[in-house]
Design brief:
With 324 residues, the chain is an alpha/beta fold. The chain has one domain: Alpha/Beta hydrolase fold, catalytic domain (Rossmann fold, 3-Layer(aba) Sandwich), CATH 3.40.50.1820. α3 links the parallel β3 and β4. The longest helix has 23 residues.
């Protein structure tokens, strides 16, 4: 059964603001011993920040860099998954949740540069600033954060020890994004002027309080404009321009160990996106696992709590095996 969304529900979906995320930042800070905010990069006058959650245990810790979702258009570093990240902290991991500049004000190549710079900063500055073990870093994210996680697998000069992609995607030029989406096209149409009024011209990172940006995302999906607005390229006229952006086109035998998690009833990011990544990882004999969550919607919407708990337990175990 497909779910229909009100404007408020859609905005929460686009921002990965499901109930499991609500209050996560406070919950994590309360259980982690400490939470610190750092500026990992400046772009002109814009400060781009990261929140670091440390387990109480001292010494060098394995670390997960978390990349928030939101279609690369909405969201911020507060968008962590409480149940999963609480498990990481309880297992003496550190969690570094990063902001990055958002589209359409900033295009995809620069967004990817932000992610690269954030990961480099964690590896170089993290050991002295907050106890990172630079030899034990993994990257994880949900939805668009899952996409950026998969992109980090081929972009970073110092590959992470593992990747965990929750309902992410490896192809950003396919028909699911470059053509009107049947699910979103069935929602009330977003007027063009309303969509573009929701975004601006000045770069921003961490769109706190700007929830109407989800209307721009909905407009893009209703008209198949996401690749053009986010990447600044037309996949029909310049298909090769997307080679550098699609994880699905860049898997090699050197790709990091990867865990894919996806619900097979996802109406936002098709389940097929993880199926295709699974096949490509297998073709190149990359160490990986693929968890299919039956009847799971986007963000595991509609999944019984015990199934979600089991999924997060398996993700933690995957990271433990590779990071110790």
């Amino acid at each position: 059964m497909q779910m229909q969304f009100t404007r408020r529900e859609f905005t929460r979906l686009a921002a990965l603001g499901a109930a499991s995320l609500a209050g996560s930042k406070l919950a994590l800070a309360a259980g982690a011993g400490e939470m610190q905010t750092f500026v990992y990069k400046k772009a002109g006058n814009l400060e781009i920040k990261a929140d670091v959650y440390n387990a109480p245990k001292k010494g060098r810790r394995p670390t997960v860099i978390w990349i928030h979702g939101g279609a690369l258009i909405v969201g911020n570093r507060a968008g962590v998954m409480g149940k999963f990240h609480e498990r990481l902290l309880a297992a003496d991991f550190s969690v570094v949740s990063i902001d990055y500049r958002l589209a359409p004000e900033t295009k995809l190549p620069t967004i990817l540069e932000d992610v690269e710079d954030a990961c480099r900063w964690v590896g170089e500055q993290g050991p002295k600033l907050f106890g990172v073990d630079a030899e034990r870093i993994a990257i994880s994210g949900g939805s668009a954060g899952g996409y950026l996680t998969l992109a980090s697998g081929f972009l970073l000069k110092s590959p992470p020890k593992a990747l965990v992609s929750f309902w992410g995607y490896g192809d950003i030029a396919g028909a699911w994004l470059s053509r009107p989406d049947p699910f979103y096209a069935a929602q009330p149409a977003v007027p063009k002027d309303e969509a573009y009024a929701a975004v601006g011209n000045e770069p921003l990172a961490g769109a706190e309080g700007k929830h109407n940006r989800g209307r721009f995302y909905l407009y893009c999906r209703q008209h198949g404009l996401w690749p053009r607005e986010v990447a600044g390229k037309d996949p029909d006229r310049e298909p090769a321009a997307f080679d550098a952006f699609c994880p699905l086109r860049n898997v090699t035998s050197a790709y990091p160990p990867t865990l894919l998690v996806h619900g097979d009833n996802d109406t936002d990011v098709p389940y097929e996106q993880s199926v295709l990544m699974d096949r490509e990882l297998a073709r190149h004999e990359v160490e990986h696992e693929f968890i299919t969550v039956e009847r799971g919607g986007h963000g595991l919407a509609g999944v019984p709590p015990e199934i979600a708990e089991q999924t997060y337990d398996r993700a933690l175990e995957f990271l433990r095996k590779r990071l110790g």
